[in-house]
């Protein structure tokens, strides 16, 4: 009797563990994923050690091992903080602020961002000074963002390895939208 009870309880725990693992994998693949910030390239928005959640479904989660994605809730917008596969080394994830969309012309002049010849007026972008650096960020140079790609910059422009140096983020490398810092507790907030 006691043996059967132990066997039944063990099976229940095993089944619950398998269910929890499958549920975790589904949530991680399609809904939300946790990331930790390793560098200061996004200061002051994100600091080293911040742990945040990234919504994968917002832009249309990729279905693992296929070339397909789920339908998106929204398209990426200028000013969003996005996580993507680093175009130079696709084994690494990067996080930056989306500045330019496919088909737009970007210019950095006097610390400001110009899109299609007009200064950007989004406070998430205008509150920062952007430096002219790298082959895609030289003074007076206008950069055409290819279709299905993005131009991204770190909020800490003086210390960020971003699109100014390595170019554009193809849309297919997009992982998701960073939306909340959950750790440490004193930094708990929505990401703007």
Automatic annotation (TrEMBL):
It is found in: Membrane. It comes from the Bacteria. GO terms for biological process: signal peptide processing. SUPFAM superfamilies: LexA/Signal peptidase (SSF51306). Residues 11-183 form the Peptidase S26 domain. Its EC number is 3.4.21.89. Pfam families: Peptidase_S26. Keywords: Hydrolase, Protease, RNA-binding. InterPro entries: LexA/Signal_pep-like_sf, Pept_S26A_signal_pept_1, Pept_S26A_signal_pept_1_CS, Pept_S26A_signal_pept_1_Lys-AS, Peptidase_S26. This is Signal peptidase I. The gene is lepB.
């Amino acid at each position: 009797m006691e043996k059967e009870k132990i066997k039944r309880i063990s099976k229940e725990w095993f089944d619950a563990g398998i269910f929890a693992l499958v549920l975790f994998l589904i949530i991680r693949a399609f809904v939300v994923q946790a990331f930790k910030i390793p560098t200061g390239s996004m200061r002051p928005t994100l600091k080293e050690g911040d742990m945040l959640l990234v919504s994968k479904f917002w832009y249309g989660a990729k279905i693992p091992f296929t070339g397909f994605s789920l339908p998106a809730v929204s398209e990426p917008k200028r000013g969003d903080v996005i996580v993507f596969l680093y175009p130079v080394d696709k084994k690494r994830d990067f996080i930056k602020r989306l500045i330019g969309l496919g088909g737009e012309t970007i210019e950095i002049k006097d610390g400001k961002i110009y899109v299609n010849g007009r200064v950007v007026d989004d406070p998430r972008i205008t509150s920062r000074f952007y430096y002219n650096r790298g082959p895609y960020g030289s003074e007076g140079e206008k950069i055409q963002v290819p279709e299905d790609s993005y131009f991204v910059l770190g909020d800490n422009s003086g210390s960020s390895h971003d699109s100014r140096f390595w170019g554009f983020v193809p849309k297919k490398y997009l992982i998701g939208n960073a939306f909340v810092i959950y750790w440490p507790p004193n930094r708990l907030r929505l990401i703007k």
